[in-house]
Amino acid sequence: MEFSTWTARGDAQFRRGRLDEAAESCLRAIGLAPHRPEGYGNLGCVLLAQGKPAEAMAAHEQALAVDPTNLAAYRGLMLAALYRNDLSADEDFDLLRRFEEVMARPLYPLHPDWAVEPEPDRRLRIGYLSSDWGAHPVGRNLLPVIQSHDRSRVELYLYADIRAPDAVTDHFRELADAWRPVTGLSDKAVAGMIRADAVDVLVVLAGRFDGNRPLVAAYRPAPVQISLHDPATSGLSVMDALITDPVLTPRHGAERFAERPIRLPHFYVHPALAPSPDVTEPPLLRCDVPTFGSFSNPAKLSDGTLRLWAELLRRVPGSRLRLKYKNLFASPSVAERVLRVMAAAGVAAERIDLSGDDQPVLDHLGLYGEIDVALDPFPFCGSTTTFEALWMGVPVVTLPTGAMVGRWTAAMLDAVGLSHLVARSEEHYLEICIRLVADAGALADLRRGLRERVLASSLCDGRGRARQLERVYGALWRRWLAGGSSAPRPGLVAQGIELARAGRMDEAEHCFQRALAADPDNGEALNNYATLLNLLGRLEDAVEVFRRAVAAAPDAPLPRRNLAATLCTLGTRDLNQSRVEAAEGWYRQAFDVAPDLPDASYNLGVACLERGRLAEAADWLLRALELEPDHGRAALNLGTALVGLRRFDQARAVLERHLADHPDDAGLILTLGNAALGQGHFDEAAALYQRVLEIDPGQTKAVNNLGNALQTLGRFDESVGCYQSALEARPDDISAHRGLLTSILYDARWSQQALFAEHRRFEEMHASRHYPAVPMFRNPRDPDKRLRIGYLSSDLRDHPVARNFLPWVEKQDRNQFDLYFYAEVVAPDAMTERFRHLADGWRWTVGRSDAEVAGMIRDDGIDVLVILAGRFDGNRPLVAAFRPAPIQVTWGDVATSGLAVMDAILTDRVMTPRNGAELFTERPIRLPTFYVHAPLDGAPDPGPPPMLAKGYPTFASFSNPAKLGDETLRLWAAALRGVPGSRLWLKYRNQFASPSLAQRVLSVMEREGIDPARLNLAGEEVDAFHHLALYRGVDVALDTMPFNGSTTTFEALWMGVPVVTLLGSTMVSRWTASMLRPLGLSHLAAGNEGEFVEICARLAADPQGLAELRASLRQKVAGSALCDTRARARQIDRVLRALWRRWCLRGESR
């Protein structure tokens, strides 16, 4: 047979899904005519369909070697690149630029001109160019938009390269103002047609796919040219914009674009799938074992994707995986690749169902009833398959990549409020899947409500998307240009309106009252009378009349919206007077009246935010933005709520979207800085706060938060300066003063006297004015009574303080004590629930003032109030200023509170020696040992010291870099000099990825003579298990000074790693020494810097001794006071009882 015959046969086999036969036919054709580029191109298409993108690219490169200007080969090359996760953003962009240089730039006109009317606000002529005007995914995405366009604003010209028209094509043709078939025309001819039609904005659809025509844009036929529904840049500099959204294209992502990304609130849109089968119960309820599934094109099933899915099946015993896409899994090579990868990962073939039948749409959708959870592939994720799964009630779990093509599903999940199904890592992907199938009831609940959620979301809002696109088209049009009486009303109602306009309010009111006396249900009179009452400030009266207007005309939108707006005004009045609960009541009434009024949802969100109900606030504010995407204040407050919930990526997406239109909004920038700070992006946060101060130099919040960022970077002088500046501007700024009290503890240069003086200044400025002249208590002075203990904390959640606190508080003697918890917790979690189960009384304090919280404590009759870690996080030390309990104790703080109303601080004999120099306003109560922590069950084995294999010792610190002052770094440099060849490893979450932090560390070390090659600054965040596993690479841990480690010290010791510390004179500088003493390791606590260096050198010089210590240390820790939670509970029980008896006997508060 001839080349053309084999080519035709291969094409037919490919279209029928017979990929192996198609590949064989392509190879036969190439053998007959190796000089013909289309043979290689066809082979590339087949290889891609088989899931072999690298081989596909090689085939297309062979085609280009034969014909360097072969458009089909370039398009195949660019398409295959999307399926690879081993190409960098730069490599992919360079490929597109190569396409532009070879194929497009020669077509660019030198002096483009257009016969368009340069009017900024006229009706625009929009041209859409596509080969997908039919029953095609892109066509289905575009149909809701095209049919919803406001034809008073835009005129639609559709350019159609359609080879097989269908009923959907006919529908598009009917919707068009002008339908232009372009099949068979050259790109130049199509561009000429567009130019002749005087199109203002040309939208090129899905340019790199199917038969679409990206090179038409190279001729610049329209003043504004936009790429839509392409999953990456076109690479063409003649394209002005690419339509995307903040999740698809994060503002600081690595992906590069030739166009300007325009971020809609949400990008993807799809019509409701009607008809479609009903959503069914999860098959897990019938089968007892879960079925995972993916109906994605097998080209998207990279080996990495398959290996991850195999690991999921391994972790969920008995689970199955169902794969289907048309009939492609009937291809032996596709099936073989899938099963081979699965088998290599330990998953048997019988657990994989490869469906090979192509089915009608309804039958295809029905198959979703046979899977519990849909698995999204990567790096090229689903889109249509994601929508179908969600529509059929099946949750989709995705792992977004750095490129737009890998974030499609994440964007869709964000649109339906399911961002918790978006994984941060492969491990997180597995955790989400396992969590979903672990609770069949919750999965069934999610499944039942998912279609309704999708239908109500922006995914099905073609009208909303059309309005957004119209605004984009208009804005880009105006940007291009910048660069190159109501009818008279009859009778008394009309008179009332005219009198009101003239400011004659009493007469106007009389007219409306007369009109209503004659016709009590006159809707127009009621609405206008209520409006007048509103203007007069008689808001409650206005509400009652508006309610009558709504009752008189229930279908009229204006009275309903006016009533809702007035209810919102009442709510805002109460909110401004700190009557938050009353305000929320008004706002809820407004929402009930007009749920489509953006301000009703917005104000409810603000009220919930004020009351500390952040998750609920976020839901309301998100709804407000869906109703009014340009609602800047809703965006700001939603960002604030999401930051408080630690949903930083979502916060950034919202804030960046609105900053694009309001680049100088200081509030948005400040909140974006807070999100960056929460993510550990401290350099970025500092830059954003500086930007706020450039716009608004008096913004003390920005000054304070800049201090927080600089503190974490270890830049103490600058952070202290920020806090002091904030206090100079606002002496009552408690947050700034608390930041200052924390920051000075990190700085070794502050003397004991200066530290104490600053704490007393805090008392003077913020606390003492609240001290009661004579504290009065109703508590019976019975020394042996059952005591009510109150614990006040923001850390009753998964937090180091809680991990120290929970192990002993749950073992307190409940025959002696009732436990009350006062929870300043904005994002409760599983650990919060553990505390709640312990509680005799549980009180949420978020959103309440210090005085209100003190009142709660007093009303509860608390005998002993324990304030946890008062200066840190969101804790509430000033509650104690109101003296709500007879006995007030601080626990878990690292220095004095500075408050005279605090009776005791819990410590131990090492942290606070009896004759120490540190000053306290409280009485130090010295336990035998202070620190306690539950055993780290499930931690990896410590392993041998790594120096045995490496030949050199590795020192390390996994402490917060805020603790790494220059003095600490110089001390560690001396330790490195004392042990030639040794290395230093520094890690804390992702914070050493900060350029300025890394530079500071390296600069100090270089000045001390340490080669940077000896330092490892790790910048990646890992989960708890893998964090602990990192200690397997550490020989000796180095402690920070003057602010020691605590959690990091315990973790190191548990992992068998000795910790060397330098004893200071303050409680915070003796924390590690306190932990070493019960282990018999006090010889690791140095008395001076020289001794610190000697200890490090002695440990490094004895690998065998280090190995023996490492092998025994975990057992030693587990058997020591550090893990004896029952003994610690008894000790604290005795302390609390003794303090109470002392108060009873003395008859006084101190």
| Helical run tally | 46
Low-pLDDT ranges? 484-490
Mean pLDDT: 92
| Major sheet summary line | 7 strands, parallel
Strand order of the largest sheet: 3-2-1-4-5-6-7
Q: What's the CATH H-level homologous superfamily of the largest domain?
A: Glycogen Phosphorylase B
What does this structure look like?
Belongs to the glycosyltransferase 41 family. O-GlcNAc transferase subfamily. TPR repeats lie at residues 3-36, 37-70, 489-522, 523-556, 598-631, 666-699, 700-733. It comes from Paramagnetospirillum marisnigri. Its EC number is 2.4.1.255. The protein is 49% helix and 10% strand. The radius of gyration is 34 Å and the shape is globular. With 1150 residues, it is α/β, with parallel strands linked by helices. The chain has six domains: 3-84, Serine Threonine Protein Phosphatase 5, Tetratricopeptide repeat; 107-263, Rossmann fold (3-Layer(aba) Sandwich), CATH 3.40.50.11380; 284-460, Rossmann fold, CATH 3.40.50.2000; 490-596, Serine Threonine Protein Phosphatase 5, Tetratricopeptide repeat, CATH 1.25.40; 778-927, Rossmann fold (3-Layer(aba) Sandwich); 947-1123, Glycogen Phosphorylase B (Rossmann fold, 3-Layer(aba) Sandwich), CATH 3.40.50.2000. Helix 29 runs parallel beside helix 31. The chain starts with a helix and ends with a helix.
In short:
The protein is an alpha/beta fold and 1150 residues long.
From the structure above, extract its key features.
single chain; 1150 residues; alpha/beta; Serine Threonine Protein Phosphatase 5, Tetratricopeptide repeat; Rossmann fold; 6 domains; seven-stranded parallel sheet; 46 helices; 25 strands; 49% helix
